[in-house]
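Proteins fold reproducibly. Next comes an illustrative record:
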Amino acid sequence: MKAIKFIASLFVSATVLSTAIAGNAPKKAAEGLAVDTKGSKIHWLAKKVTGQHEGFISISNGNLSVAKGKVTGGTFTIDMKSIVCTDITDAGYNQKFISHITTGDFFEVEKFPTATFKITKVAGSNITGDLTLHGITKSITFPATITSAAGKVTATAKIPVDRTDFNIKYGSKKFFESIGDKAIDDVFNLDVTLVAGK
């Protein structure tokens, strides 16, 4: 009888120990995937009273953290000097436009050659992160669509950005009420496609 009780005691102790070990076992770390800078792209669109302009800007590097097929974090860097405009066909005017938006009136790229976005929270389809632009960091939240296939993760999102939050005031009615039809919308839109994989 004593032998049976002793064996039962050993069994209970082993069960408790294995449960404790399992509970303290480290969780599987998120997998880091490098951003495919050639497969990723950002399309920008900015509007004004008399029309609009659009183009592209390049992602220079980045990574996404993925656990169980879901994005849990990540960061990417935008090359502000790579901005191009695709709707102005006159070469001279196009160059003049790009020269203007890269000066201190807008993005001041010589002083701030990059912008960054760092994911701080993922809740369902909503992504929250810190956008650093023009030397200023603001938290923004937007919906995103994320898919995973063949070892690659693709995230797409349409992100509205209020430039005045980043001290870019040129042509803003918020600061120049009498500007009339020369006003430029405070919000510009980024249509982002981010591809990451091993």
Notes: The beta strands are 31-35, 41-48, 51-67, 70-85, 114-123, 126-133, 136-149, 152-162, 184-197. The chain is about 15% helix and 50% strand. The chain has a mean pLDDT of 88. Residues 35 and 196 are 4 Å apart (CA to CA).
